[in-house]
Amino acid sequence: METIAEFNDNQGLNVKLTKDKIYISATGNEETFALRGVNGVGLYDDLEKYAKEEEAYNNNEKQAKNTKILYIILGIALGGFCLYLELPVFALIAGGGFIAASFIWKNRLKKPVLDSYFKLMLSGADRQFKFFKSDESSAKIADFINKVEETLTAYSK
Hints:
4-stranded antiparallel sheet, alpha+beta, PH-domain like, 3-stranded antiparallel sheet, 2 domains
């Protein structure tokens, strides 16, 4: 079993091509596909899901920015009020606490991530395997797909 090409995304997906089969080892499962049953290969990015997550992130980011400003104003007002009452230690703790909470509140949002899939087109159904896409893995998966296409009989006609 001589390996023609191999792709590993360092996040759980490993795809290996031999002259007869494609071996896929993903998180939690391993599968083998005969090349004679594969009609095509490709990549799929779930842009629809990413667009929804990005819109929700942008809305939450605006809301978090307003909350941060509110916490800072409350911290300054509470600190000033405590200084007016001649309670400097409480002013420092309460005012500083609200200001610190404003930064924690703003930084709790996670940016959306584009999900990418290695897609095998089979007779009857398609199979998708999620992989971690980075600049380095994009070039590797593109090379892997080119080698698969060279091996498939459907592409060599």
